[in-house]
């Protein structure tokens, strides 16, 4: 059962939100008429009571910005997903900088409201489960030291499972093929192994790399599912999937896979020469996990069939990627990748697409989509 708190000083907007979720059995919508009312209700419940807050920004007594600042500066509630609902683009960007997880533009599209809100409800539930697992582990350590190893193994497997399911959430948003996720995660692990990373880090990359595009759950469908080239304004919004992904996965330092996923989600579009996004990192400023995943992701995009293009010939794909050595890609890692290309082709053969007609929205590198 998911619980949503809708905050708006306009009764009509609250009625609209309640009506939108009225036919979904697993959703309970509670309402607040201003920021003070919202905080009172949040603080009166347990920290894990609400799964998502739908927050208007322009309200009397306490506006949405005040609520957002207070929640995101509170260690107990800072991971509670907040979706701002506004018609003002400037307000939207300010809210995201303050820590809002996502935004919806007024007038609200009902189907988008439902799907985006449900996505964040599920994500928050996963986070709550992680917290519960951590508490269980602490109790187990106090109880019996002999059971610690088994409990840690269960926690690791659970984290892997959660990571995989979060990866599937982004996959369903952009209709990407599941085999792409499988291939690029195994490509990433193999390249990490060849690069000499310790075994435990290779395993972390294997399970964290599917989270690279989790931020796409926060991109509007009219942009995410657009089949053609982005306009500049659309591309700027699309680029926000990196920062949204980082926000979704932040604060998970105790969970190695989720924390690695945050790094990958935030940095996998950075480029060695500093022309990437979102932060224009370059060279060693980019984490090796992100450098590895960038190579694996682009290689699979170029060598796989998509609805808008055939798979490129291997030599052509290699040529394109080698042209990006030292600018887009880390030269040492890229050379290591192609010097062992047969290892990666074996992985490609193992995880072939089940259907050649699986839809996708990836575009070529020059379109700025990978």
TrEMBL record:
UniProt cross-references to SUPFAM superfamilies, sorted A to Z: CheY-like, HD-domain/PDEase-like
Annotated positions of the 4-aspartylphosphate modification: 56
Biological process (GO), any one: phosphorelay signal transduction system
UniProt xrefs under Gene3D superfamilies: 3.40.50.2300, Hypothetical protein af1432
Keywords: Phosphoprotein
UniProt KW Iron-sulfur keyword: no
Pfam family, one: HD_5
Claim: Transcription is one of the keywords in the record: no
Annotated Response regulatory domain residues: 3-121
Domain HD-GYP: 155-353
Name the UniProt record assigns to this protein: Putative two-component system response regulator
Protein species of origin: Hydrogenimonas thermophila
């Amino acid at each position: 059962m998911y619980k949503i708190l809708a905050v708006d000083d306009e009764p009509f907007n609250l009625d609209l939100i309640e009506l939108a979720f009225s036919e979904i059995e697993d959703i309970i919508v509670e309402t607040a008429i201003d920021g003070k009312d919202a905080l009172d209700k949040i603080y009166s419940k347990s920290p894990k009571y609400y799964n998502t807050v739908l927050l208007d920004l322009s309200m009397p007594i306490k506006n949405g910005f005040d609520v957002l600042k207070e929640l995101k500066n509170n260690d107990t509630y800072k991971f509670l997903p907040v979706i701002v609902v506004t018609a003002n683009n400037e307000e939207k960007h300010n809210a995201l900088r303050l820590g809002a997880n996502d935004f919806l533009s007024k007038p609200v599209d009902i189907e988008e409201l439902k799907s985006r809100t449900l996505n964040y409800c599920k994500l928050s539930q996963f986070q709550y489960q992680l917290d519960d697992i951590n508490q269980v582990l602490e109790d187990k350590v106090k109880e019996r030291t002999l059971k610690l190893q088994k409990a840690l193994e269960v926690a690791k497997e659970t984290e892997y499972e959660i990571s995989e399911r979060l990866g599937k959430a982004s996959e369903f948003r952009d209709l990407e093929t599941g085999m792409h996720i499988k291939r690029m995660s195994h490509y990433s692990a193999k390249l990490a192994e060849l690069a000499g990373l310790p075994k435990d880090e290779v395993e972390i990359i294997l399970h964290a790399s599917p989270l690279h595009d989790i931020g796409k759950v926060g991109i509007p469908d009219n942009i995410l599912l657009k089949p053609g080239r982005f306009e500049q304004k659309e591309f700027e919004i699309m680029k926000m999937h990196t920062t949204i992904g980082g926000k979704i996965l932040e604060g998970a330092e105790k969970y190695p896979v989720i924390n690695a996923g945050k790094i990958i989600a935030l940095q996998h579009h950075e480029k060695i020469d500093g022309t990437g996004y979102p932060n224009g990192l370059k060279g060693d400023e980019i984490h090796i996990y992100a450098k590895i995943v960038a190579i694996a992701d682009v290689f699979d995009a170029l060598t796989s069939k998509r609805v808008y293009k055939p798979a490129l010939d291997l030599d052509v794909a290699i040529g394109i990627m080698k042209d990006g050595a030292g600018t887009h890609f880390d030269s040492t890692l890229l050379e290591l990748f192609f010097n062992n290309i047969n290892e990666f082709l074996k992985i490609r053969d193992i995880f072939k697409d089940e259907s050649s007609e699986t839809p996708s929205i990836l575009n070529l590198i020059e379109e700025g989509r990978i």
